[in-house]
Amino acid sequence: MRRTLVWVLPVLAALLYLWWNGAVRTVCAEATWPFRRAAEGVKDWFSPNEEAERENAALRVRLIEAERLERENAALRAALGWAQEHPAYIAAPVLDYGGGLGVWPRLTIGVGSAQGVEPGATVVAPEGLVGRVAADNLAPHTCQVILLSDPTNRVAAEVTDLARGILQGDAGDDLGTRPDESLLYAPRPLRLRYIEKNTFLPTKQAVVSTGDGGLYPGGIPIGTVQRVSMDESGLAQVAEVAPAVDPSTLDLVFVRVREQGDER
């Protein structure tokens, strides 16, 4: 009997304490409720603008969101206006940044062979050249774009009336923990190679495609010259080019489709 009481009594005491504690807290809360209400009234009396301040804060949040939407709508209207002036191109939404492995030299976009897109088709934004459609990932309604930062993507380019060369991507830095499988990708500047050794090339000059080779049409903006130096051989110059288009900001691009009699 004594052994039973040894554990029963503490349990009963604990249950009684919990009941009493809850009951006391409830009674105290009910008893102090009128005073707390009065205190809230006094607070509102001395701070009549608190509600207005909350409303103003909510209005500021809505205003920021409205301004963001307006900027996006303005950019979309400008892009669609550009498309009307260039009927050889069709609009395509950007579906994914990074292609199949999440590596930045590619984008996935929402048009494909069903819309007349062909391998190697030129992809642009209103600001300039984006890249070309990859042959290995062209599906009926989607495709991948090989960006200019991909070293395999070469463009015949020129600084008008000053120099010509071949523009090539210089890959980039994969900032992830696993090689070639990260969305954290930092592209390096593009490089315009094979510029004549004695050519004077100022910085901030525009670089455009020449159309040579037939891969890309001529006259598409590519970027601006940042720096010029001798290449590894010492026989030619190479210019670092800041791209005109930042792929990470793209929501919409335009793909050139073949028209009747068009040899691209």
Structure description:
The protein has 264 residues and is α+β, with helices and mostly antiparallel strands. The protein folds into 2 domains: 2-75, no CATH class; 86-256, Beta Barrel (Thrombin, subunit H), CATH 2.40.10. The protein is built from 2 helices and 14 strands, in the order ααββββββββββββββ. The chain has helices at 2-46, 50-85; strands at residues 89-97, 106-109, 122-125, 128-133, 143-147, 154-159, 163-168, 172-174, 185-187, 190-196, 206-209, 221-230, 236-243, 252-256. Strands 1-2-5-4-3-14 form a 6-stranded antiparallel barrel. It is elongated, with a radius of gyration of 33 Å. It starts with a helix and ends in an 8-residue tail after the last strand. The model is unreliable at 99-103 (pLDDT under 50).
Quick summary:
By secondary structure, this protein is of the alpha+beta class.
**Morphology call:** elongated
Overall number of strands = 14
Strand order of the largest sheet: 1-2-5-4-3-14
Mean pLDDT: 76
User: At CATH's second level, what is the architecture of the largest domain?
Assistant: Beta Barrel
Task: Characterize the largest beta sheet: strand count, sense, and whether it forms a barrel.
Answer: 6 strands, antiparallel, barrel
Helix and strand content put the structural class at: alpha+beta
CATH class of the largest domain: Mainly Beta
Rg, nearest Å: 33 Å
The level of helicity is 25-40%
Could you tell me the strand content as a percent range?
Answer: 25-35%
The rounded distance between the terminal residues' Cα atoms is 101 Å
